Amino acid sequence: MAQPKTIKLPITNIYAYGDYTATLHIGSEQSPVNLILDSGSSTLVMNQTCYHATGDTLLEPTTLAQEITYGIGGWDGPVINTQVTVEHAHDAITMDNCPVALISNENQNKTFGKANGILGLAYRHLNKSYDLAHYLDHHNIEPPHTYPWPFGTPDCVEMGNAHFNSDDLKQFKKFLWQQPEKDLLPYFTQMEELGLTANKWSFYSKRSSVHVTDAKADDEALKADPLNQGYLILGGGEEHTELYQGEFQTIDVKHDCYYNVVLNKFQVGSGAPVAAAPIDQAHEHNYFTNAIVDTGCSVLALTHDLFEHMKQGFTAISQEFNALIEPFKDTNFMATGIDASKINLNDWPDLHFHFDSETGEQVLTCKPSDYWQFNSPAPGKAVFKIISQLPNWPNQSLIGLPLLNDYYVVFDRAEHELGVIRFAPAS
């Protein structure tokens, strides 16, 4: 049996609004696709902009379909099996018959910006599919597979008195929920269970928004900026001493759905820490804890209570602070930003997050230079990267890139029963 490999993949944040992507190669043509690295989901999904299923001689259709609605955006489409390769320099890992979801229509591509899809790196519970074999047979659909996608024709699906197609994500989700459910092995889980790599991966990043110093810079120029680069380490972590300094802090994973962690307290600067409420009982069954670590989230999303506490802490320092962050209540304003000269980072406080751990409470710090991103979305502009609780989301904080950027983060899924996440100061 081949020895497990460790692959150090270069990643970039220029294709997906500040989220990081890695390049995988798909199918018989080894088509390169840029996929968002998302620890908050488990599905490998892509559009057909760079990958063309019709030319893939290794493609095997199935009777399965998937749909996912994220905090922002969503998609549905068929599941196929094909070859997936991840490689860098002389190292490569290839898996045949890998489940891949294809986005069913171009409008849904907007979910991913200029990226081609998502590589979900969470656990198996989030990778649900639905088996339409009986439906396809009952309705005499030929070929009796979900690829080519048979649900794009207007009003082709009937459910009660409603007629719709897969463009209607909300209705199509209800339709899929009536079909038999089948969990699929996520890409990384499949890789490590085959012994191709160890059961850990690591993430190194510098920013949560694209760094722009030249308004005329194209994608290649932006990609060449070291501040827009990072690394994904598949199968490795602590041995990459070039990416961190000092000691690791270890936080326990409390549930293996998302990378669920428990946030005990939140602190603004040198102010008194405030307790972070546990997740509401009504949502505990599906969301489990009051925080998740999410590499696919380019903001820090705090619960309503913690966000208000942050604003109060800002006001105690300066009456002007909340006026500066107010425009960012509309997340679309991140595409505009404010004049960076209005922000003196030395005046703003560090934000401290106190997490639960077997070894005692661990405190991680988000610096002003991480929650304010300068030279984004344009030279001389700045964006504020902390938002309040998402609509229709429980009281769960999303620990996204602004906190992760200052650390080298190791997701060690083999440690203890559910895994741990280790944080060391990034080099």
Describe this structure in words.
By secondary structure, this protein is an alpha+beta fold. It folds into two domains: 8-193, Acid Proteases (Cathepsin D, subunit A, domain 1), CATH 2.40.70.10; 239-425, Acid Proteases (Cathepsin D, subunit A, domain 1, Beta Barrel), CATH 2.40.70.10. The chain is built from nine helices and 30 strands. The strands form six sheets. Strands 2-3-8-4-7-6 form a six-stranded mixed barrel. A four-stranded mixed β-sheet has the order 16-17-20-28. β5 and β6 form a beta hairpin. It is globular. GO terms for molecular function: aspartic-type endopeptidase activity. This is A1 family peptidase. It holds the Pfam family Asp. One of its GO terms (biological process) is proteolysis. Residues 20-421 form the Peptidase A1 domain.
Average predicted confidence as pLDDT: 96
- Roughly how much helix do the residues carry, as a percent range? 10-25%
The count of helical stretches stands at 9
* Estimated share of beta-strand residues: 35-45%
Structural class: alpha+beta
* CATH topology term of the largest domain: Cathepsin D, subunit A, domain 1
The second-level CATH architecture of the largest domain is Beta Barrel
Radius of gyration: 22 Å
Looking at this structure, what is the CATH superfamily of the largest domain? Acid Proteases
Report the end-to-end length measured between terminal Cα atoms.
35 Å
Sheet with most strands:
6 strands, mixed, barrel
Largest sheet strand order: 2-3-8-4-7-6
The shape is globular
Number of strands: 30
Counting structural domains, the number is 2
